[in-house]
Every structure is written in structure tokens, then in C-alpha cells.
Amino acid sequence: MRLLLVEDDQTLARVIARGLAEEGHAIDHAGSLAAADELIAVNDYDLLVLDIGLPDGDGLTLCRRVRAADHPAPILMLTARDGLSDKVSGLDAGADDYLTKPFAYPELAARVRALLRRPKNTAKPVLETMGVRLDPAAHTAWRGAILVPLTPREFSLLEFMLRHSGEVCTREDLLEHVWDAHYDGLSNVVDVHVANLRRKLEQPGLDDPIETIRGVGYRLGAAA
Ligand code: CA
Q: What is the DSSP string of 106-139?
């Protein structure tokens, strides 16, 4: 596997790089965000080990950038601080795991092995609730065994509701995420689209998957 280590502490970087190389990995090392950016632009990495505190910025920024670019490589964040907020921001930024410094090398090696073993997270798994199935990658939706043709707007509406299945999606949520915050068309646009979606998802013998929460919005699937 090809790994990128982004760490400005040269001593620590040497220890990690030597260890991972001994396990048979190819390791590239970057000591700064800028160097990491250059390497990521030209190489296809299977895993990133990313320090948070770097001389030219924050490892979290790189983490977010990599995720925004849909780069599928797992990311292990290294944080010097044991603060909960660092871990949370690391995970929020799209990291798959984190390790607090100081750590023993075998612990890092174990995390790396675990992350590399994970099935390739295609980032877009099939979503399913109450017999409603949506494949974001293939852009298809089914109810039970029936393929349901949806308009692009209905598709994003259903995808958003499936991603929040069991939660109440307010009209404002839906307007903001499916239409964008600047939509200034008809005020009942959400209701109209939900009604169409509901009709298309109707199948004999299957319950209506969308519940209307009066005066608030809609919920897809049983309450969480
Ligand atoms: Ca550092």
C-alpha cells in the first residue's frame, strides 16, 4: 500500500516511516501542508497519516480538502492535544480515526492495519429504509423491487430524507438542502414535491414511508 505521512516532527516521522516501511508499505513523507498538497496531486494514496499542527497550517484543512475532493483514502489524524474538541473536529473534517500523541508505534501500526482492512468506503453506499432504496452512485431509486423514475429534484429530496431517515425534516431543512437557501419560488414547493414523491413510491402492500408532521415537515421511516 502507498501511504502518505504528513508530520513536521522529523524524529517522529522517521520512526513512523521506518516502521510502516518494515511492514511492506511505500511511504511518502511531507513536512508541511504545501508539500502534502504537491504529493497528493500526483500520487494515489491508500491511506493518509495526518498531523494536526503543521508549520504552514492546520492538518484539519487538508483533511477537509481531501474529503471535499472525494478522495477515498482513509485518514488517521495525529493530535498532540487530548482535547475532545480536537477529536471531534478531526472526525467532523472527515478523518476515519485519530491517535493522541504521545503514542507507542505499535498502536499506530494497529490503527493503520485496521483502516487498510476496511472495505473501500465508496463514500456513497446504497441508502435504504422501509423498502425505499436509493443508489446515489448509480442514480437509481426503487420501491421494493420496482425501479422508480424520479426527476433530479425528487431524487435529491429522497436522498436527503433517506440520509436523515427517522428524523423530522422541516420544510426549511428541505428548502435549504434540496433547493438551496436562496430559493424564492412558490412557498408550497416542498409539499408539492413530497406529494409527487409519495405517489411515485406507492406500491400495493407497502406502507407509505413518508409521514407528514403537521405544521413542521416530513419524516421518512420510523421515528429515530
Ligand atoms: Ca506537528
A: HHHHHHHHHHHHS----S-PPEEETTEEEETTTT
